[in-house]
Amino acid sequence: MVEMRILRSDPEGVVNAYRKRNLPDAQLALVGELIALDDRRKSLQHGLDNDQARANQLARQIGEFMRSGKAEEAAGLRAEVARIKETTRVAGEALEDVRTSIEEKLISLPNLPHPEVPPGSTADDNEVFKMGSMAIPQLADGALPHWELARKYRLFDMEAGARLSGSGFVLYRGQGARLQRALIQFFLDEAVRAGYEEIHAPLLVNAETARATGQLPDKEGQMYYVERDELYLIPTAEVPVTNIYRDALLREDELPVKLCGYTPCFRREAGSYGAHVKGLNRVHQFDKVEIVRLEHPEHSQAALVQMLDHVEGLLQKLELPYRILRLCGGDLGFASALTYDFEVYSAAQARWLEVSSVSNFETFQSNRMKLRFKNARGESVLVHTLNGSALALARIVAALLENNQGPDGIAIPTALRSYTGFDSIC
RNA sequence: GGUGAGGUGGGUGAGUGGCUGAAACCAACGGUUUGCUAAACCGUCGUACCUCGAAAGGGGUACCGAGGGUUCGAAUCCCUCCCUCACCGCCA
Fold first, then answer.
1. Using the CA of A39, which nucleotide's C1' is the nearest one?
2. Are A106 and A33 within 8 A, CB to CB?
3. What is the pLDDT of residue A273?
């Protein structure tokens, strides 16, 4: 949720920034509407406070009259209190309406794009920020896409997943299952080594939690919902992990907070059909290690760079060809101010697959969840939140299988061998 | 799922209708003392919003799990919900 403070301080700048996101005029108009509503809110609050101060004063006087036996005087004041109460009731309702209206409008506005966000409207306009040094592998004739490799080496079974749950659910087995576990362990170890505290979080969260990180209301349809208990299956570890600090008021010296967590991620996403969603390219449940940081506003950009380095290091250790994209305004996620996507090249499909998204949310999430720290001057300041995948498994597996296939099987990258316990899949 | 006991400021914990935004103690912070440390002593010490002020700072309102209600007045009385703890039942 964008800070009202920012809207008020520079409405024109805000509107201009939103143009980068290609927001429709109706949404841009909200900026002015919100400021007007906020003015109204202040004036209602002012009136209400004054009336209540008066009522409190009268109540005290009535008490004194009662004690000293002046019943008539007390009765007269009671009548006045009754009048004031009626006024405050009306004002209170009006204030509540204005608040609700502000909340509704504010929550419908996406985050302001960071100045570094390139212009553009679709994924095609994303800027290639960096190409990894690993060469794109040249596969021999007859190289197979990962879903064929899975069949050949009995690594995972989409049909079984479909039978158990539905299409888009995967059952891993044998070396395929082992590879999953190895990657999770590897990613967690690397994150912990980089100073992130490991979190093992609940996979079902309540509505308030989903709202705080921005999944509700804007991505409601993306989440699985357990109606009977009013709980959502998490679409990413970001949700429970960031929410650990909901409503927190930290000391400045507690920053930065660096957390990581492995969870399965559940996504309903209807999506398209055909080759694009075949195999592991897009599934309803996948595994991911997420890194999350709570930062002092002055340090969040530096933190973002560190996170990019961390993710890049993982891909280098896995010896995967990758590139880093800087998302353009039109492709930027609702809650994000600045996002870098990592894509790995999946050679048999001859396409880039998104395996990580690293974002700085600045105060968008912390404003929703009232996550602040106290600065040296004693003021409460919203922290910046950041997170990134480090890394998402399913597509990494797809690329690993395809890129490393050869006549003698599929080679496991050196860094992973102590985790898998085998050097190749055969 | 059943029964019982509770939810007060960073912590412990007092407070059953007005002078309680809340005692006391601990922690924390600033200071005095001290060769240093400790102790002792003095002071500060919740959050949000509105408002006055250039600022320093001042004034006001709300908040004692959440939401309603009674009352001139509620941390205190009533109702609903949530959560925690204990015991029983069930159970990976």
1. B50
2. no
3. 63
